[in-house]
Amino acid sequence: MSWHHGDTELRSGAMHLALCRHLDISRDRLSSYYKFKLTRKVLSLFVQNLEDLVSLDISGHLMLENCAISKMDDELGPPSIEPSKSSIIPFRALKRPLQFLGLFETSLCSLTHIPSYKVSGDKNEEQVLNAIEAYTEHRPEITSRAINLLFDIARIERCNQPLRALQLVIAALKCHKYDKTIQVTGSAALFYLTNSEYRAEQSIRLRRQVIQVVLNGMESYQEVTVQRNCCLTLCNFNIPEELEFQYQRVNELLLNILIPTRQDESIQRIAVHLCNALVCQVDNDHKEAVGKMGFVMTMLKLIQKKLQDKMCDQVMEFSWSALWNITDETPDNCEMFLNYSGMKLFLECLKEFPEKQELHRNMLGLLGNVAEVRELRPQLMTSQFISVFSNLLESKADGIEVSYNACGVLSHIMFDGPQAWFIGEPTRQEVEERMWKAIRSWDISSRRNINYRSFEPILRLLPQNVSPISQHWATWALYNLVSVYPDKYCPLLIKEGGLPLLVDLVNMPSSHQETKDMARKVLEHCSNYNEESMDTAL
């Protein structure tokens, strides 16, 4: 039972509560509502008269008199819950330990001998977790302060009961979906409780529960701190794998965060990073679905805003990287990029940030995806675009990446044949010569900042005699990848039927000798890889 009356009433009432088993006279120490002051005498009165008492909560009371035994006596012997050893004098009259004793935000919780099996308090992790458990349902203001203490424990020390802690915070966030204070403290605690230190102990089901409450928080609160905490917590998960069960919802929420381009800088950076991770290494259906949600337009608007501010920061680079990922083998998204003036922004970024190597790499990677779509290539066939791509062949930005991707774009354009080259300047021959020169300048053992899930766009450039330079670029790409990363790319090339195409290329009269020699080396690498794999298997 709960009691919030005056001192005299409480004394007389205690006499009539002989059968009382649960007594809650706790108070919120920050509230001025409570007039009653708990004294040592009144506490003794309860203990003496309530013989059936199993739980008592006196949290929040500032004891007017000293109820504790001397510090020297308190420290004698190991901690005990026996009433006879109680460090709290009034509780020495107990016949047996209590099941629960609420001492949160009192000085008594720091004593050594407390006669209760379960104690809520702020002395250590166990007491704090007991406090969250006891007060979540009916005392959100106290719960919030207890979660804040847990946050400090998780941040500064190490949680000894991380699973229990996580479950209690999840329960509090679910119970108080619209309590801003709990959402702020709870989401902050989740960030520390889901990091890699504790991951191994957490089940898939539990981590999914975390994701659900985080997304609930993002949905209910536009407040900066909650949004930042929720986004940071999502960064603790394997993306996209662990978020796939809520894929559409999480993307919608992140895009909503990014729509106001004046958004808090740190949230914007984290949200764009998450968006990029979510569209990397997922199937094309997912990419198409996210594209229809407005992903491409949102990224382009962020880029436009950064251009206006003349700022090339992580948001700018992540936005181009996200566009590179979402357009990979996804023609609809490539078309959206062109329709929403993506090429205009590409040219403006090149002009405004001529020295930003990673930016150039991301932009050219994206344009490589666009160039793979035959129906869209005519939109790239302008003197301005072709001149820009040709000039980028000589770029040394990010190793060979920018030059390589520029050459890839031009290789796909060349693949459409002379009849598709409907510009006067630069001529097809001039561009072709610059491509040969660029490829010959690359180091075949270059380590790469690129990840191919499929070789199909490269392989389609092999069985043709329209553009020997396109064939050569494709062969160089395969040779580089299978020689530097054989374990990853030899099996992929074999699986996708690349070897017969290379054999045909070697026998093709129109292929350059240089290309044929390189194709033989690719075949040799794959043959050696197969033999080594068999040896290992044996």
UniProtKB/TrEMBL annotation:
Q: Does the keyword Repeat apply?
A: yes
Q: Which terms are listed as keywords in the entry?
A: Leucine-rich repeat, Repeat, Ubl conjugation pathway
- Pfam families assigned: LRR_Zer-1, ZER1-like_2nd
SMART domains, from UniProt?
Answer: ARM
> Per the database record, which ranges form the Zer-1-like leucine-rich repeats region domain?
16-106
Keyword set includes Iron-sulfur: no
Q: Where is the Protein zer-1 homolog-like C-terminal domain?
A: 173-527
Q: Which residues cross the membrane?
A: none
InterPro entries per the record? ARM-like, ARM-type_fold, Armadillo, LRR_Zer-1, ZER1-like_C, Zyg-11_UBL_adapter
Which Gene Ontology terms of cellular component type are present? Cul2-RING ubiquitin ligase complex
Can you tell me which family this protein belongs to? Belongs to the zyg-11 family.
Entry-linked PANTHER family: PROTEIN ZER-1 HOMOLOG (PTHR12904:SF23), PTHR12904
Q: What is this protein called?
A: Protein zer-1 homolog
What is the species listed in this Swiss-Prot or TrEMBL entry? Pelobates cultripes
